[in-house]
Design brief:
Structural class: alpha/beta
Number of helices: 4
Order of helices and strands: HHEHEHE
Strand order of the largest sheet: 2-1-3
Largest sheet: 3 strands, parallel
Distance between the termini: 30 Å
Helix content: 25-40%
Length: 87
């Protein structure tokens, strides 16, 4: 049985991280799906244009409502505040 650390390391091989700004530019150019996984209260104070808000706690249950394309490029945003980058 694989350990949690091993599973996370395997998953990270398929995940690219970038700045919030670069992810936004990519979304504009490639029409990728930009998901803001912050809670609604956080989004209300600093919304991100053209993003879809699906809080992290319900992401797996609701991602299918946004796309059924398994090849769709998806960027997720978490814990972002103006001037910071996290994506």
């Amino acid at each position: 049985m694989k350990t949690i650390s091993t599973l996370i390391a395997e998953i990270r091989k398929n995940i690219q991280t970038t700045s919030a700004h670069d992810a936004y530019l990519s979304e504009q150019k490639e029409k990728s799906l930009f998901i803001d996984i912050r809670e609604a209260q956080e989004v209300a104070t600093s919304p991100v244009i053209n993003s879809v808000n699906i809080p992290r706690g319900v992401l797996e249950m609701n991602i299918g409502n946004c796309t059924t394309d398994k090849n769709q490029r998806i960027s997720s945003l978490c814990n972002w505040r103006p001037g910071e980058s996290c994506c």
